Amino acid sequence: MNPVAWKRSRVLKLVAAGSLVLVILYLFLGRTPTPDILPIIEQIKREVPFLSPGKLGNFEPPEELIIDAPGEGGKPYELPPEKKNEGEESLSNYGMNMAVSDMISLERSIPDTRMDECKYWNYPEHMGLKASVVIVFHNEGFSTLMRNVKTIIKRTPPEMLEEVLLVDDFSDKENLKSELEDYIKRFHGKVRLVRNKEREGLIRTRTRGAEESRGNVVVFLDAHCEVNRNWLPPLLAPIYKDRTTMTVPVIDGVDHQNFHYRPVYSPGTNFRGIFEWGMYYKETEIPPDMEAMRPHKSAPYKSPTHAGGLFAIDRQYFLELGAYDPGLLVWGGENFELSFKIWQCGGSIEWVPCSRVGHVYRGFMPYNFGKLAEKSKGPLITINYKRVIEVWFDEKHKEYFYTREPMARFLDHGDISKQLIIKNNLKCKNFQWFMENVAPDMLVKYPELPPNTHWGEMRNKGSSTCLDTMGRPAPTKMGVSGCHGYGNNQVRIQYRKSQARFSFPFI
């Protein structure tokens, strides 16, 4: 929301919170509550997250023992010389060093990367919410997949975990067949496995996972994650307060070579998800005026969008929104589609600093999209982006996307009539409202774009080669390669204000 709206919302919240101050003081100043205030105190304990400085929160687990073993404490592990070749081979097959992963315990200790204040939050004890953690995988490494499962079970209050639901998107690796089915029997039904009969891609398979799940909250995690301590209660509490809130954990990094677990963000900083007009996902620190009005740096805060891989949402609400657009193919753009749909149709997105989840950032994508990619008539991700903006952007804002991706005008994004019906039935707001009330800070970094005056290839007619970014981010020296006619890394754009640039591909 815009700065004025932020302040108005904060004032209303502070007034409501102020009425609770005297009650909270009874809890922490040692005063004996009077009989008339006892029921109010108990209600607050059940319903409202609150800090108890100096006293650990009600779901805070004991410290984990760090033993002397590979990868413990989240430390990097280097293979001995005789296993180096095995590691290199696994890296080429999986995009991560599975030989290293296989040497590390599936329940290893990792550093507590939360702000110190997080230890002292108390969360509602009777929320009545149980999470189905949905993990979609395709040819995932066995140990990274099972480390994900085991850390979820180890670090989640059992009363809040309905199940871990593994959804196999048509894997063909042998150890993901009967070996996986036998392995999960040890969890006595807490871990379920469903399989696609053909390759569907991440987006459609996540929707199937939500449909198959049994919990009243769905938590989506990528296949190669490690959840950190006390990760789930902070994600559930905002949903308990408002079922139309989607919550997002803060992501820590796990190195794909040596599995070093470490924070991605500097200590004490909070970032929001935004985007630039080519629909590339970006992040920016919370605007100073918004940060100044927050009483606790560790409290959840609103964000325009999210990276897409990890989040929690009320299951029924997700399905009421139409889940993901089934016309989006494989992967890419689904984070924006869901974000715009939630915000414009009456919900909100909150990032939760006290929920931390580690994620392996692979060196490269170790598989292709097979027949799924053959169904698209052009760059698959760009088509997905076009489909999203044609549903959720206003005409004015669509032009900014086409300024950044001029060739997208000519791509077939398919039939969007059902998505427009959903938008109409839910009485969703327009995109101008979103920009003014949810993401006003985005224009500081990514202002509205002037129209293009010229765009196209810079072609050498003699050699049929074109200037090419060679996949390198700007600023960079250009190279030449055979002209392919698909734009992206070979498109030169001239803005009206005499700003020349090349279109850079999504990496």
Describe, in plain words, how this protein is organized in 3D:
By secondary structure, the protein is of the alpha+beta class. It has helices at residues 3-28, 38-47, 84-94, 98-103, 142-154, 178-183, 202-212, 232-241, 288-292, 315-320, 334-344, 371-374, 380-392, 395-404, 417-425, 431-437, 442-445; strands spanning 50-51, 121-122, 131-137, 161-168, 191-195, 217-221, 225-227, 245-255, 261-263, 271-275, 281-285, 301-302, 311-314, 348-361, 452-456, 459-460, 465-468, 479-482, 492-495, 500-502. The longest helix has 26 residues, at 3-28. It is globular. The relative contact order is 0.11.
Blueprint of the fold:
Elements (H helix, E strand, L loop, with lengths): L2 H26 L9 H10 L2 E2 L32 H11 L3 H6 L17 E2 L8 E7 L4 H13 L6 E8 L9 H6 L7 E5 L6 H11 L4 E5 L3 E3 L4 H10 L3 E11 L5 E3 L7 E5 L5 E5 L2 H5 L8 E2 L8 E4 H6 L13 H11 L3 E14 L9 H4 L5 H13 L2 H10 L12 H9 L5 H7 L4 H4 L6 E5 L2 E2 L4 E4 L10 E4 L9 E4 L4 E3 L5
Parallel strand pairs: 3-4, 3-6, 4-5, 8-14
Antiparallel strand pairs: 1-2, 6-13, 7-14, 8-9, 10-11, 12-14, 15-19, 16-17, 17-18, 19-20
End-to-end gap: 30 Å
Strand order of the largest sheet: 5-4-3-6-13
Number of helices: 17
Shape estimate: globular
How would you sum up this structure in a few lines?
By secondary structure, the chain is of the alpha+beta class.
Core attributes:
alpha+beta; 17 helices; 507 residues; globular; single chain; 32% helix; disordered C terminus; 19% strand; 5-stranded mixed sheet; disordered N terminus
